[in-house]
């Protein structure tokens, strides 16, 4: 039976969600972790995903130190198939590494994002505080007065971060505790 640690519904709730929340990504990760060495072609056959998508995820996993490329070999069709060595085979550890990295990236983005933005009701253009101040809180395009608005993208990122922290905490819990939580819901 396949163990999944991440609720795939989150990716539909948060359209700007991270790559780890995508169901395809999770299938690829689970396929990779169950082997010591794997080729892109064998992943494609087992889960029926485009090689391009597989390669993107493998490159991200390589950046995190989870997999490493071994080499390439030529197939009959003249295409290259790359082989990858799996450095970390514990799926919990893999998800922990990925989610911690995603949380760090969200934190960086949140630090650089203003709490409020200024919005033109006519054009739909948003301005940060400095740009709005430079233009006397008027739209550059139409001259309308800008309206102060809460930065919803920042709120969405905070919610996403909380969900990722919840997922991370559920991964770290012992197996029996996680099973009890599922049965009580």
From TrEMBL:
Pfam families: TFIIE_alpha (PF02002). The keyword DNA-binding applies. Residues 23-160 form the Transcription initiation factor IIE subunit alpha N-terminal domain. The keyword Ligase does not apply. Gene3D superfamilies: Winged helix-like DNA-binding domain superfamily/Winged helix DNA-binding domain. One of its GO terms (molecular function) is DNA binding. It comes from the Archaea. GO terms for biological process: regulation of DNA-templated transcription; transcription initiation at RNA polymerase II promoter. Keywords: DNA-binding, Transcription, Transcription regulation. Transcription factor that plays a role in the activation of archaeal genes transcribed by RNA polymerase. Facilitates transcription initiation by enhancing TATA-box recognition by TATA-box-binding protein (Tbp), and transcription factor B (Tfb) and RNA polymerase recruitment. Not absolutely required for transcription in vitro, but particularly important in cases where Tbp or Tfb function is not optimal. It dynamically alters the nucleic acid-binding properties of RNA polymerases by stabilizing the initiation complex and destabilizing elongation complexes. Belongs to the TFE family. Monomer. Interaction with RNA polymerase subunits RpoF and RpoE is necessary for Tfe stimulatory transcription activity. Able to interact with Tbp and RNA polymerase in the absence of DNA promoter. Interacts both with the preinitiation and elongation complexes. The winged helix domain is involved in binding to DNA in the preinitiation complex. This is Transcription factor E. It comes from Candidatus Nanoclepta minutus. The lineage of its organism: Archaea, Nanobdellota, Candidatus Nanoclepta. The gene is tfe.
